[in-house]
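Hi Y.,

Following your request, here is the sequence exactly as I used it, all 196 residues.
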Amino acid sequence: MRIPLIKISHLALSLLLLLASGMSFAEKADRDKPIDLEADSLTSNDAKKISVYSGNVILTQGTLVIHADKLVVREDKDGFQHSTSTGSPTTFRQKMEGKDEYIQGSGQRIEYDGRMDKVQLYVKAWVKRGEDIVHGDYIMYDANAEYAEVLGGPQGATPANPKGRVHAVIQPKSAKGAGAKPAAETPPASAPQDNQ
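Below is the corresponding structure, written out as tokens. Let me know if you'd prefer a different format.
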């Protein structure tokens, strides 16, 4: 069932800037794309400026795609948007600006504060950018302060990580990107030197 659209000013920015090291921005053009929302039901209270989408919720805006069981969107008195998506799990995926690469993540609950430009993922949360990934019970990114925090905890426990500790896998920077000479141009230390 198609649900009428509501105005969500910076939701495209909400779920995208999470891994602090090597930060890249999501597809900037997404902000200017229409928001398409689908759900099984919608309740909207214009007086309180709250809309609740329930049942197989799919939000699409450009390359941003969010899947949730429920999405609550609230506008504060100053016009800033705040959203909470919940699910088992709720997920997002968005293309990175200028790259053929995506940032994606998941948690039982994802909250976005449009005023602070801050996103928080709760319970069995993970965020992946390219081949880098971080897992935790809680993941927060404050885009204004360029600050990230990841906490472990018992709710983040999985069979592979029974204590629910924070776990990150960060790929090495490529030699080309780090400014090093390509391996073909650098002889191995044990190679004999030609004295001509």
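The beta strands are 36-38, 41-45, 50-61, 64-75, 81-95, 102-113, 118-129, 132-142, 147-151, 167-169.

Thanks again,
Q.
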